[in-house]
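Need a sequence for this fold. Nothing fancy.
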């Protein structure tokens, strides 16, 4: 590759696939190249077994709606996350209609989202959360119960042989939740891009990004197998390489990356394919995170549908590796250190001793201890039914903070050069679920002179583009119903 291309997408995950798909719909004449260092796309965080497949709509995840110091609960962030997921649903529905995506059952299925808590404090919080959400148009249909008979109907495995104690419990349920195979979705998007002339180059490890005098970026790479070097120029570069994004953004030299670091956290899940067990649970059930645990480590018992086969996952159990990717390098955590991010990272370590304690406790758990943790959800769990699988690596954002010196941040963050020719994504959950919203924001930031021109086309792909749904109950109802029908996920 020696020509100058319009767009270089680094990383073969859901982010690059989403951005590439949007750009190809908006500018079919643009030349786009995708570089993926592994032999196939969707092998890191987008792979179905490297994530929990939750279509994050804040229906069940408590970390999107924490209780304030005064005991209040604010639904604003939960509503915003739901709005973002609605945009993803709308785009996927449009792509199915255009023949770009296969049948919806190949990547998405209806799966109720539940929250289950125990103890007076958490029950009181969950009830407040329910009261705050039930009047929000995008959360219509949310149910609450403290009745074991009702919860047993929703998710029998939660109630079977649960001891009758004085400790109260409660659950919420939203029937309209989903399970998403982001690996299958990513592969389908890239397959279509290739059909449209996009070069999706695997075994292509980008090594450096250098700004040229003409304003383009020189993308230097090498073949991951033969180590053969090469390069090409691109007018715009998106770094969607998961945990490796920070390495490439640092090498690009853009000043906007100064002060950023990432903390890698791995994960494991318990998995069962025992038909007798799987048949009794049709839901994603989330609870409260352990003290000191990062928000992405909230325990949950999930229905998964991958390649048409159902299974159950429980976890995650945190692991530690200095690698930024599952297929990363042991030197990753050290290689990121720069004068500008050293103090923020030190401050994060000093200010989060509970995180270190949590990680150590997780690492000391054997298989039996992990199944014991599962039994807090599923009292009848048997050790022999569950196997341990390794999930993906997450790189949680650390960055400068004017007051604290450095903070550990949950979620995703887009870092963009001042001229808009380079952009990269840092962070983790709820990334995949909100990929469409994130990429729409990127388009506005990096292509401000074209956004108005693209507006009508974007509105065709995403009917709620440029507006919100939650402020209009009827509009929200119609939109949710229309995408549910198009995606065959009617509850």
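Here you go.
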């Amino acid at each position: 590759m020696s020509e100058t291309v319009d767009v270089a997408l680094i990383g073969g995950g859901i982010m690059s696939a989403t951005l590439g798909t949007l750009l190809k719909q908006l500018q079919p004449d643009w030349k786009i190249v995708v570089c993926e260092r592994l032999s196939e796309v969707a092998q890191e965080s987008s792979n179905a077994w490297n994530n929990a497949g939750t279509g994050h709509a804040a229906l069940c995840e408590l970390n999107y709606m924490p209780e304030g110091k005064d005991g209040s609960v604010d639904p604003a962030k939960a509503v915003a996350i739901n709005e973002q997921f609605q945009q993803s649903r709308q785009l996927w529905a449009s792509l199915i209609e255009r023949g770009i995506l296969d049948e919806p059952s190949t990547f998405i299925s209806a799966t109720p989202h539940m929250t289950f808590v125990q103890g007076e404090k958490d029950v009181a919080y969950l009830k407040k959360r329910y009261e705050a959400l039930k009047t929000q148009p995008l959360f219509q249909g949310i149910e609450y119960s403290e009745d074991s008979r009702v919860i047993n109907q929703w998710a029998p495995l939660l109630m079977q042989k649960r001891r009758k104690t004085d400790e109260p419990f409660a659950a919420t349920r939203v029937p309209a939740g989903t399970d998403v195979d982001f690996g299958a979705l990513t592969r389908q998007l890239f397959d279509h891009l290739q059909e449209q002339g996009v070069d999706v180059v695997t075994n292509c490890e980008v090594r450096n990004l250098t700004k040229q005098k003409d304003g383009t970026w020189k993308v230097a790479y090498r073949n991951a197998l033969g180590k053969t070097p090469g390069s090409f120029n691109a007018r715009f570069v998106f770094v969607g390489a998961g945990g490796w994004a920070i390495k490439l953004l640092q090498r690009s030299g853009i000043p906007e990356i100064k002060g950023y670091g990432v903390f890698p956290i791995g994960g494991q899940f318990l998995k069962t394919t025992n038909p007798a067990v799987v048949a009794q649970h049709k839901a994603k059930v989330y609870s409260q995170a352990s003290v000191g645990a990062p928000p992405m480590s909230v325990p949950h018992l999930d229905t998964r549908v991958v390649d048409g086969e159902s299974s159950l996952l429980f976890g995650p159990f945190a692991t530690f590796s200095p690698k930024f990717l599952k297929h990363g390098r042991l030197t990753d955590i050290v290689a990121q250190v720069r004068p500008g991010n050293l103090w923020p990272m030190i401050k994060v370590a000093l200010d989060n001793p509970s995180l270190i304690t949590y990680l150590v406790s997780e690492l000391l758990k054997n298989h039996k201890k992990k199944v014991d943790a599962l039994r807090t959800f599923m009292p009848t769990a048997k050790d022999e039914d569950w196997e341990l699988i390794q999930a993906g690596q997450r790189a949680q954002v650390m960055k400068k903070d004017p007051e604290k010196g450095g903070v550990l941040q949950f979620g995703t963050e887009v870092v963009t050069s001042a001229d808009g020719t380079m952009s990269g994504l840092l962070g983790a959950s709820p990334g995949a679920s909100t990929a469409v919203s994130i990429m729409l924001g990127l388009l506005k930031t990096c292509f401000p002179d074209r956004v108005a021109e693209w507006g009508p086309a974007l509105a065709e792909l995403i009917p709620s583009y440029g507006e919100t749904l939650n402020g209009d109950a009827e509009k929200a109802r119609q939109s949710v119903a229309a995408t549910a029908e198009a995606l065959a996920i009617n509850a």
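For context: The chain has a mean pLDDT of 93.
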